[in-house]
Amino acid sequence: MFDMPSTPSSTTDEPSHIPVIPVQEDAGTLQALLQLMHPIDPPLIKSLQFAQQLVTACDKYFISTAKLRIYLRGILSEEQCLKEEPLTCYGLSWKLGLEQEAIRASRYTHLVDLTDISVANALFSCSGGLEALLTLWRMRNTREDALEGLLSLVQPRTYGNCSSNTNSFNSHRSTSIIVGDYIRRRTQLKELLKSPYPKCEKAEEFLGFQVTPGSSGCSICTENAELRLKAIKVSVMEALEKYPQQISGYVILLFAKA
């Protein structure tokens, strides 16, 4: 941790002879540590970098992080921090045992390249272990499976003759569902789902399909097309509610100090 200085050969009250212990932490970090340990005003934590320095210092000097968890909840939940440094928010929340904060932060990690070794190392260091990274990978794999389920909600189909048909001369199909190229649809949907809170404003654009009436001049066909479109949108909204946008659980914490 640090080396204790040797006892001076002469005794004096002069400040120049007071033993000095060099440490790696800067003055701000040390002051915040002392504020955590003593019943005085809590430290002001304005950046994730400073928060990470405090967590590291607590580990180094075997200082409880119980109070630190209280003071870090706010910054780890700030929208700007989650957008700019989602992995740091996630890793620190994981390490400190802030379950809900870690779950929320995981929503913002979909744009992070987990195959990058530097990213993996950074998360390992920040979270204090490998499980935080493995949990994100499990979520990614689950998302891939669920992606296929979303795409399968819409299949190309042509429905039977319109009920307005009175003779063979004006006979026409009721409604058709036209689906676009699969690869393009999958790529587009995957990008849309990288948002922490994806929204489906228009189901046709979201899943890359069209519902067309059999005859543009037939009111029954138009009504049927609208009803089928609404039914598909309801199914999409229900599927989005269940889509794995965040980690589903939290493992036993091994690294945060009670």
Protein described:
There is one protein chain. With 258 residues, this protein is mainly α. Helix content is 51%, strand content 5%. The protein contains 11 helices and 3 strands; from the N terminus they run H-H-H-H-H-H-H-H-E-E-H-H-E-H. It has helices spanning 27-37, 48-60, 66-76, 79-84, 86-96, 99-106, 117-127, 131-151, 182-192, 203-207, 219-242, and strands at 157-158, 175-179, 209-213. Strands 1-2-3 form a 3-stranded antiparallel beta sheet. Helix 5 runs antiparallel to helix 6 (99-106). The protein is elongated, with a radius of gyration of 29 Å. Mean pLDDT is 85; it is low at 252-258.
Query: How many H/I helices?
Result: 11
Overall pLDDT metric: 85
* Proportion of residues in β-strands: under 5%
Give the number of DSSP strands: 3
- What assembly state would you assign to the polypeptide chains in this entry? single chain
CA(first)-CA(last) distance: 21 Å
* SSE order: HHHHHHHHEEHHEH
Lateral strand order in the biggest sheet:
1-2-3
Q: Specify the helix fraction band.
A: 40-55%
Radius of gyration: 29 Å
Largest sheet: 3 strands, antiparallel
Classify the secondary structure makeup into a structural class.
Answer: mainly alpha
Q: Which geometry do the CA atoms define?
A: elongated
Low-confidence stretches: 252-258
